[in-house]
Design a protein that fits this description.
By secondary structure, the protein is mainly α. Helix content is 62%, strand content 5%. The chain is built from six helices and two strands, in the order ββαααααα. A two-stranded antiparallel sheet has the order 1-2. A hairpin with a 6-residue loop joins strand 1 and strand 2. Helix 1 runs antiparallel to helix 6, helix 3 packs antiparallel against helix 6 and helix 4 packs antiparallel against helix 5. It starts with a strand and ends in a 6-residue tail after the last helix.
């Protein structure tokens, strides 16, 4: 299966296979996970280490309601359309939380924050990834109705002091966890569509 890619309306078109689309998606997801890990580590270093903060209010990630494979073996047994649906659902569920992270760091640190710049890069890369996943969905016959429901996120009401730090820490921690899932699932999908014997 392949999809035509055109440079412009009057330009020449060439076809790109699904395996190539997965390859591109995998590269972007790897970059997103790397940036999310860097942002989390920086936040932990500058705001958490040495601080006696109470994180008992942190319960779970807002995407925990999305049922995902428990391990790689479980993921290997999961149909490709289901894995793709999970990737898209998780990705969509982080649009609002990431905008919140960006707005908070923009308000408190301006353009000097390294975490802010990484978050902005992540959002741009997520848009690229979403566009690529849409193309993949069209090729593999993934209908929009079959996509897992996006999980809503509510902005916290208490945003002062330690509470704000806890909220941001939780979001960055959960986002790093979820980007690892996305990266893992896309690697498995790429492996399947390149017809490798062992994934």
């Amino acid at each position: 299966m392949a999809t035509p890619i055109c440079a412009n309306e009057g330009g020449e078109c060439r076809t790109i296979s699904v395996s190539e689309l997965f390859h591109r998606a995998g590269e972007i997801s790897h970059q997103i996970h790397a940036l999310s890990t860097e942002a989390y580590n920086e936040f932990n270093q500058h705001f958490i280490q040495g601080q006696h903060l109470n994180f008992s209010i942190i319960n779970s990630c807002h995407t925990s309601s999305i049922v995902t494979p428990q391990n790689k073996e479980d993921a290997l047994r999961t149909p490709h359309k289901r894995l793709l649906s999970l990737v898209i659902a998780i990705l969509r569920s982080w649009q609002d939380p990431l905008q919140y992270v960006i707005s908070e760091f923009s308000a408190t640190h301006g353009n000097t924050s390294s975490i802010l710049s990484k978050s902005v890069k992540i959002v741009k890369q997520m848009k690229r990834l979403a566009k690529g996943l849409n193309k993949i969905s069209e090729q593999v016959g993934q209908h929009s109705g079959a996509i897992e429901q996006t999980v809503p996120w509510e902005q916290p009401l208490d945003e002062d002091g330690d509470s704000l730090i806890s909220q941001l820490y939780n979001l960055l921690h959960c986002f790093r966890r979820d980007t690892n899932k996305i990266d893992t699932y896309l690697k498995l999908l790429k492996c399947r569509f390149t017809q490798k014997l062992k994934c």
